[in-house]
User: What shape does this take?
Amino acid sequence: MMAPSTPLLLTLLLSVLVCVNADWLSSLLSSPKKAQAPPSNIPPPSNSNPNLTFLKWFTNNGGYVNPAITLSVFEMYGRGLKVLDGSLVSHLEVLFSAPSNIILTKSKIMDLYDDSTTKRGIDEVVNDDYAIALELCVQCALGPHSKWDAYLNVLPHHVSNLETFTAHELALLDSASLEKLGNQMQERTTRQYAAVSGLLKNMAEVSGQKAKIPKMGFEMTATRCLSFESFRHYTSIVASRAMVISGEKHLTPLADMPNYEPKNDGRVMANGQDFMKYHVLGDDGSMTVKSDRDFGSGQQVFEDYGDNPNSLYLEAHGFVPFSNPFDCAELPNPVITDEKVLNVMKKLKIVEGEQNYCPPVCVKADGEVETNTRSYAYYAVAALGKFPTKLKYCEVNMDDPAYAGSACIRWGGSGKAVNELISVAANEGIKNFGSSIDEDEKRVKTLEGNEALAVRYRLSKKRILSEVASSVGVVEEKAKVVSDDPTSLAEKVANFNAFIESLNFPTNYLTAYLAGAEQRVGTKASRKIVAGEPYITVPNVAVMSSDTAATDSSLVNELIARGKSMNDDFHTLLFFTMHERFVSKSKSKWWPYLTLLPTLQDYQEYHPNFFSDEKLEGLLGSPVRELILKNQGKIKRNFQGVSGDVAVLEAFGKAWTVENYSWAMTVLDSRSIWWSGMRHLVPLLDLINCQEGPAGSTVHATNLDSGGKNAVTLAPWSFKEGEQVFENYGQPNHIYFLFHGFVLQSNAHDCSLIMASVGPNDGGARDMDELKRRMEEGGFNSYSAEFCVNEKNVKEETENLMNFLSIKDGLTKVDASVGVEHVEAQLKKYPEVEPLADDAGFDEKCMRSLVEGEKKMLGLVLAELQGRKDEL
Ligand SMILES: *[C@@H]1O[C@H](CO)[C@@H](O)[C@H](O)[C@H]1NC(C)=O
Ligand SMILES: *[C@@H]1O[C@H](CO)[C@@H](O)[C@H](O)[C@H]1NC(C)=O
Assistant: This one.
């Protein structure tokens, strides 16, 4: 792959180091000057254009090239791909497809040789790059007899990567690590050449004989092509042009030609997943490359090589991008002087060894550090020094592996504190450079070649650090999303009621209205409703489900069909809902319903799926916090998983974002009404708010009528005309909170969650068969058990908990003291808190009430357990 720099034409000198000692070559070694050869391969006949010869060779070998593109030469970039004048190339269009027989990999090269010694020799070459470089040396020596001749003719004569940097050029990089790496690369190649030169000679001989090349002509080129300089050159060629696919380096003619330019699509780092979307290895070993964006007439076809920092581009490809959103700059870790903080770092194994070493972080211009990294842990713990209460809470919990992470690393506010420390460190980092940004900007204009690359490289680092340094204190919560539907809520309600009217429900005693405060929208009785009578009957056709999923997009319909065929009811409904809400919008038949649902902004305000770590501090100590984090993680993972599917990206385009996906996940998780084993979104029925009913009332249930055409709901209790109608969903508060973001003050079905699980270090895990047997016997079907305690079931649940804990510890007899220990440890996890202010948010009040409930129930369980202990 080529660099955005003017390639220097460097004459490949005949190296005195030539160590090809074949008898038929030895005469040449005594007079190396005679063998001085032209800098490139044997020139092709002068009337042919090497670019066109190459493309012809490519298709003659069974390759496909999109007729809209050709090879061309661009200023600053050198050779690249170009869209023909008057043509267009669109995102995901196939650019070309290279057949297997011209792609070089180590294993394919082994197949070119019959004798097992050569095969083994190639197999033993330390890495793919060197193995492929050897074969390129051989093919170079074969000249016009080589199958790859047309390809070799369009390869650059010089590739400047880190290895070709002189000591002076390396010093210009102003990076100790790269300087070291550059020197190592040079030494390594020299060592390798010495190790493989015998093999190379042998490969060349065998290939020369096979091609029936008259000796003398072959010797001339062979000397040049098999030299150290040539080996080093082809190693650079492979390092910069071959790509790793399925764990093996592939040097693919043409696929190595598009130049780099980032897409700037704001995507997150995903370990090259994005690159793999556009480079597809076929079952027949061919490689198909698709366009990663739209290109207009006459434009250069660029490619985004993936989520890499500049160091990789310099190291392997020998260029420094003009811009790269994935570039990062290394920061020296702040030195820790606080003994307590250092102690936490040692305990959590964030630092190691005598020197308390932790690898330095590489920050991008936005200054963000991924939360699940060791660097984040380092900075988050370092920041605890300024928060004594939080540090104390961390110290109390750091021995519990299940809890140390949330207490010491992802503590509320840690994101902001990490950002601040990073900014300070960036400021320090800038001071370590020997020159300023201004000086470099002036200087880079006067330089060329490797010197220009080196200065451009360090300039990029400085710019990143200065951007990070200047962002102190400006790191805010993510910008609020603006609504894409300006209609007022009152209008939406009116449109919705008209929509419901048009659907002709067989029975409907409800109207939607603005219920105010936390409820937003609710339902009221349009006439008197009597307990037990059907009061809302919704026909199947008025319900969004896998059955009614159909859109005006054939691409989305294909996804829906695929979802159905895999019985993936969830994604079928999700794709349907996302398409109608974010793509069709007001053109969708379902719009009056979808637009009345809580918006993304609403959810960001109150739904736990969108809570920040800081907000979740309100649940510190509670198992509900862990469940919320688990849900949040699940949404992100699912999104990333599904995003790997090109068909999905194509079908949704700009609407496919993690926010829109999270909205749809939240809608489905919180509003689905189940019958016949399937999820349904039921307009109007799902607007009924939740409340405890009077004595004797029933819990919500919707069922299909006998004809299977309508979903019928019976009134849970009686309502007067005009009164707000409620249902009782019969769930404990933590379930309401997890899925809907509210709790009920009065809730007969409430109970508080206590969790316990068996870990690999528990006594019970020593004998897994016995553990399994006892779990089954005790009626536990998971190594992680949930107990839900209220005043009525406290005896029973205490008993269950005690049984579980005894099995967990591998005790032969049920023992109340293990229960006491467990509950006391749980109670210790709740930090001391101030009473809530009167103006505390609804979410804060909900979380506090969950925590208070849990503490109270743990107290009851503890008393119960102590009573039993005393009995013994
Ligand atoms: C083919 O490539 C050469 C450089 O090797 C360039 O000078 C020439 O303009 C190219 N020809 C065409 C037709 O693009
Ligand atoms: C949701 O989808 C729309 C397309 O309708 C898109 O423009 C918007 O950016 C997405 N919203 C977010 C917050 O990602």
About this structure: The pocket of 2-acetamido-2-deoxy-beta-D-glucopyranose (ligand 1) is lined by residues 49-51, 71-73 (CB under 6 Å). The two ends are 77 Å apart (CA to CA). Residues 540-676 form one domain.
